[in-house]
Amino acid sequence: MSYAVGIMSGTSLDGIDVALVKITGETYELVDFQSYSFELGMKEKISRSLAKETSDVELICSLNFELAYLFGDAVLKICEHNKMNSSDLEFVASHGQTVYHHPKNANGLVSSTLQIGESSIIAEMTKTTVVSDFRPRDMSVGGQGAPIVPFSEYVMYRSQTSQRILQNIGGISNATIIPKNGALDKIVAFDCGPGNMIIDELCRHFYNEEYDRDGQYGTLGTVNEALLQDFMSHPFIAKPAPKTTGREEFGKQYVEEMLAKYPDISSNDFIKTATLFTAKAISSAVTPYLELPTELIVGGGGSYNPVLIELLKEELPEVKVMIQEDIGLSSDAKEAVAMVVLGHRTINKLPSNVPSATGASRDVILGKVTYY
Hints:
It is built from 14 helices and twelve strands. By secondary structure, the chain is of the alpha/beta class. It is globular, with a radius of gyration of 20 Å. The protein starts with a strand and ends with a strand. InterPro entries: Anhydro_N_Ac-Mur_kinase, ATPase_NBD.
């Protein structure tokens, strides 16, 4: 038995999610979960680094270390909260903050990805081994480096009685489809499209709020069919799997373009239509793979938007749509726990990518190890 901490900082920029996990063999038990919000100034810095118009190498270089200090501090806090020393952890697994993800060769650029949050700083602060930078190894063998969590989902969620779809709704939505009694090489996983990203940008634009808390704005809106059709005509929606996307396609620039194109649509109608877009992007992506009976288990921040969950149920009437809490787990902690699963495989020199999901040519050991 050992303990490890997983760190996740996703595309939604909510903050730093930290999970303390007990490892017994190949069983992973969540001991504690904490989420530490970014201060406004840090969030603005990260946002600047993500936009081509405002990013620069000096900013990214500094953020690589600044974020690492925050990640290390988050580990120290959760250990202190649980009355343990960080040096007693077997390892820390850090995803890092994605600055840019370019999954395929295009426009004179090679396929590549960049997550920042220097592992050397985290190791020095926590006095333990750090596993980080999981995505590049998959890309080195022809994969898209995403989705990153299907292996952990297979380990923790496979079912003998039904097909299960693990539907994460963070900034981007992604699905992992696990067949009933399915083997690892039968898993299919892909990004579906925007998750909360467009909704959050609209809330910032119209209300200066970070997200649609409890679906309070979406519930007051009416769907605009013209806008919805325009959303659904985005080229990514029709792409075949495996596929991956990010802020590059559905971020602030895209939202600003749509706002300029439809200046007469009210705030709540815009938000309601964007919420339905997320639901429809998910349903259109997973429907070709349904093998009933199917359970779709939603995790991530989107699971707490009741309007989005109801729209998903309407779009997938034959599917049992649930959230992580319905099966006794945590929607918030899911991806941080996944980092522990991946890190544990890396420490033991075992592969954890899923070629059927990423398009990689073979199984590989993910991540880089920084020893203390």
